[in-house]
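Protocol step 4 of 5: obtain the predicted structure for the target chain.
Materials: sequence only (see below). No template structures provided, no constraints applied. The aim of this step is simply to have a reference model before the mutagenesis design in step 5. Sequence pasted as it appears in the construct record:
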Amino acid sequence: MTFIQQHRDTRRGHRALVAGAVGNLIEWYEFGVYGYFATIIAARFFTPEGGSEAEALVKTYASFALAFFFRPVGAALFGRLGDRVGRRPVLILVITLMTVATALIGVLPTYAQAGALAPWLLTFLRVLQGLSAGGEFGGAVSVMTEFAPPGRRGLYGSWQSFTVALGLLAGAGAAALLATVLTEEQLGAWGWRLPFLLTLPLGLGALWLRLRLDETPVFVAERTEETPPPREVLRAVGLGAGRIMGWAAAGYTFLVVLPSYLQSTLGATFQQALVATVLANLGFAVTIVPAGLLSDRLGRRAVMVTGAVLVVVLAVPLLNLLQDSGVSNTVKGVAVCGAGAVVGLMAGPGPAMLSEMFPTRVRYTGLGLAYALSNAVFSGCAGLIITETIERTGSVDIPAYYAAAACAVSVPALLTRPSARRAGVPNAGVERAG
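Step 4 output (structure tokens):
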């Protein structure tokens, strides 16, 4: 390979990283904003006269969960298109849909203005977001890992997870800024709309980047390869979902649900809850890329199992520490930062691990479905399950039990080594890392 060709390939790979990651950043920015403003959204859209705050919060998280359950539909629909016509055109389509749906949330009428129509309109837009998000992950990870140089898929794929942290941090930052400069009345009346409207210029920038994206050479070269039997693909989808369920559950518990939990259960202020969330996401961000790079050397399995086991061991002590009024805020801040860091050990290698489980012909669909199914059940339902279970049982340790149980189930799935034939793995090097 000539120096010029190598330089050109490097530039294309870097461009693919940015174009693939930017849509994921917007997606998680919005989902983070929705989670951070859950109590305000509950009051504006799900609290008719006479309704309780707890009931409204449960309905808000139900809408949250519904969007996640449309992710597998989006993964199947857009994944099929992406495996047939190419990654690039489908990624352009999903970023457009996501941007429009998110920006429209910022102009929706509230329950006081539109009555019972308001929560239905919000839920409809959440469904559109779920569909587009389902098509986003599979395409973005396919682009990143298919452009990755040999031995660097873990590093390239980890940037997908890193943009999750950036998106959640951006959402938390926007919420914290608004909570600082606006009064509580202004924030509840109109301030909560601003972060959703901000998605419009962000989405236009992402669209411009994707219009300049090349199709992946791997897809162009292998688009005529034989499609593996559906049973083989579904088996790999199920295993992939099991491998990342701990990442999905622990990630959403510690990085998104935490603010509402601290407010509604532990009596923290909105600002205190956001600070805790920012610290958790900072810890998460710091470990993601190093974990992906480490997985290129040690294997995906070793790094991800370490993260899952640490969650099982540390989840309950962490929550008990947050509940202890005698512990200083500094210690609590270090603890939540550490919790995010542990989740990063699973999130860093996760995208490459899923990508390597499927051949090119079904990669967009397969890895997108595995991710979407796991997130629909264990991320999308996290807020609903945790809030409802605490309400019914009175136990404030439910979030820790939830995250630890999911990670405990993930460990044997991660330790399972399918044959290259069953997993649809195109080469032996992939199976060693997976």
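Step 4 remarks: The mean pLDDT is 83. The chain has 22 helices and no strands.
Proceed to step 5.
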